[in-house]
Amino acid sequence: MPDPIKPVIVGSAASARPGAPAGERPDADLLEGLNRPQLEAVTYRGPALLIVAGAGSGKTRVLTHRIASLLRTREAYPSQILAITFTNKAAGEMRERVQHLIGDSAQGMWISTFHSACVRILRREAQQFGFTKSFTIYDSGDSRALLKRLVKEHEADAFGLTPAGVQSRISKLKNELADADSYARQANMSDPAERVFVEIFGAYQSALQRANAFDFDDLIAQTVYLFRAFPHVADVYRKRFRHILVDEYQDTNHAQYALIHELTRPVQGSGGDSFSSGGMMIFEPETTPEVEGASLTVVGDSDQSIYAFRGADIRNITEFERDYPGAKVVLLEQNYRSTQTILSAANAVIANNFDRKDKKLWTDVGAGEAIVGFTGYSQHDEAQFVADEIEALHRASVPYSQMAVFYRTNSQSRALEEIFIRAAIPYKIMGGTKFYDRAEIKDALAYVVAVANPADELAVRRILNRPRRGIGDVTETSIARFAAERGITFRDALGHAPELGVGPKIQAAIAQLDAVLTEATEIMLPSSGEIAPPSSVTEGLSLLLNKSGYMDALRMSRDPQDEARLENLDELIAVTREFARNNPEGTILDFLTEVALVADADDLDDASGTVSLMTMHTAKGLEYDAVFVTGVEEDLIPHRISANEPGGPQEERRLFYVALTRARKRLHLSLAMTRAQFGEVSAAMPSRFLQEIPHDLIDWRQSPGDVNSRGGMQSRALNARRPGGGSGGSGKRYGDDLVPLPRREKSGDIAKFANRIPAKVRDNGDLQLAPGDRIRHDDFGEGRVDAVTGEGAKRVAHVRFDSAGAKKLLIKIAPIVKL
Ligand SMILES: Nc1ncnc2c1ncn2[C@@H]1O[C@H](COP(=O)(O)OP(=O)(O)OP(=O)(O)O)[C@@H](O)[C@H]1O
Ligand SMILES: [Mg+2]
């Protein structure tokens, strides 16, 4: 540890008098403009501080100012600070803000995500427990590939186990700090499916260890394991980090909670008397620890807990006071982000969650603009509305970078993108098919990993036949067998091409791959022991891609997509150059670490002048002048899958709350009457959450009520088929295939419409119909069922109406009764 450890007297009253005349303090300028509870939170000194507060109340800002204050008053060295944020992007912002507040003396702080902090610890300590510091980080695609093989080898599909299912169970268990053995002890091992699962879990873990690799969940869980198994290692970090601060604490899972707990333990003196008494060893712990536990500050909002599906546990926040007795609790209630209108809407929605402490956010910003509501005929129509509004706002001088569009699922972005491209609106998708998820990028990185960590068999296998070298499954198996017989790695086996018992052409191909990898290794990890300069990553990567024939294969291809792939690889090479610039002492491992930890929200670039499109999950912690929340429909938000899970709808409501509270000045809520997904068009219903917003806060530009008052859904739907053929409106409608919709409120009265959104959406799911049955439809009158097709929610009745002719109706939602 390069930095000296400065003992900090925890709990000292030094400079801790909130409300003291600001002029007395060296950090006075940092306290200006804070409200009273914020000031209290920034200046409190003690072992544990919990700041609970609603969205936009300055939690993140308080953390930043608290760090700056600790540094400015010289209560802490930068190296004694560990701040945990939710994304790398948030970490970067926090670092910048601290630097802005106090200048360059912020160097040496650890401001990072849980995952990055653990990688840094593991890189230093992995050799303590059978890994090397060049370990690979498996992302979820890598884990899935490994599990696919194991599920096949164990013939586990016979027990209904799928790679995805096993993966998510293992992930949950690791988040609970369970391993294969501990799980086996409490599992029902008389159940053969459980036995196979436990076997696969064990085999998966051994494979990771053999490959010198950690999966994402391991990064945390194994660090906790490390600290518990090797207290002297943990003590190094306990002594170092005197101030630990965690943002978005409501979304920590058990493993993360345990990590923090380990880090904040006091360091016991090496003494402590043990003596023998009556044949029993008695251990007498020291009464006073050598070093007090670090001071811990956590901030969070239980109303914004949206990661239960990843094991986040709201109890971590609600039970903080129990776990850290004597903890100071500060509540913030003033919101500085949004207008009163936006806040009132958000407050009203979240009030419907029954298991929460009521807290009311207020602002003195004033009411601001009404929320704008819009109902499109289809998702294209909805997207057109969003695009029109964005253009209007842009003309009114709102920069594109201050606008964001949210949706619940990634697939919803396509319709928006199509219209944005046509309207020439610059936009950027956050998450989705990420750059680093693209096959060519993963191939290129697998080459680098094969050099950096040759024990990583998965990486070597991945590049074996990319580009095509005629190496098939049979050869791959021969290599694996040869490696096993000789007790060498798969990578090393490539150096024995002539002994593998394969044909001369394949021998040559293997030898060539071996030569390329060896040459790149000399550049990136020189055997001379010399430290390779960061530019060696660029050099090595170019060599790998060129000499392996990978680039050539793409250049020769006639597939137009391959051109895009080449561009992506060029971009990756540009990334390595940037890395070299930013990290003068960076190594190939630092590069791979950085790449492996890039999270969804991390490509955000506020300055770039583009509208940001992202899922509601990605939006956490961010803020924009104008926000569009799209697809506010049942089955999307709340999402269909969560509807039947315990606590599901409540978590979805929190997610919706997060989305609403991102908006500073303008909030738009939109939905569509029909939505095409996976090639099928189905009718959509307004989300129940819409009804929870007081009606007078929403200004409906177009509601389903308007739609009907202008001649009914059917005729509008027909008009909407032709772009530009809509009656009235903007004249830019992109209707797609519409199905008959249930009748809604005939009047255009918005409030009335809102009142009529059924609390529980109409659901004829149980209505059994058979050919020959007579039914009555609210609009079409009586008719006879000719046939019923489809299944479940997609069941369609083919009905011949007495006067309205033949129609196809979606049974689940059509306003029909059986006669
Ligand atoms: N005392 C203050 N004076 C002026 N602006 C403030 C003050 N406190 C917070 N803000 C501003 O209010 C906005 C919201 O603050 P911040 O992002 O810290 O809130 P938060 O509680 O972390 O929100 P979230 O729950 O969404 O993460 C920011 O733009 C911040 O700069
Ligand atoms: Mg925040």
Automatic annotation (TrEMBL):
The keyword Ribosomal protein appears for this protein: no
Reaction catalysed by this enzyme: Couples ATP hydrolysis with the unwinding of duplex DNA by translocating in the 3'-5' direction; ATP + H2O = ADP + phosphate + H(+)
Biased composition (Low complexity): 11-23
Binding site for ATP: 53-60
SUPFAM superfamilies recorded: P-loop containing nucleoside triphosphate hydrolases
GO-annotated cellular components: cytosol; DNA helicase complex
Domain (UvrD-like helicase C-terminal): residue spans on this chain: 340-621
Short name of one Pfam family: PcrA_UvrD_tudor
GO biological process: recombinational repair
UniProt feature, compositional bias: Gly residues: 723-732
TM helices/strands, residue ranges: none
PANTHER family referenced in this protein's UniProt entry, alphabetically: ATP-DEPENDENT DNA HELICASE SRS2 (PTHR11070:SF2), UVRD / RECB / PCRA DNA HELICASE FAMILY MEMBER (PTHR11070)
The protein's name in its UniProt record: DNA 3'-5' helicase
Organism this protein belongs to: Microbacterium imperiale
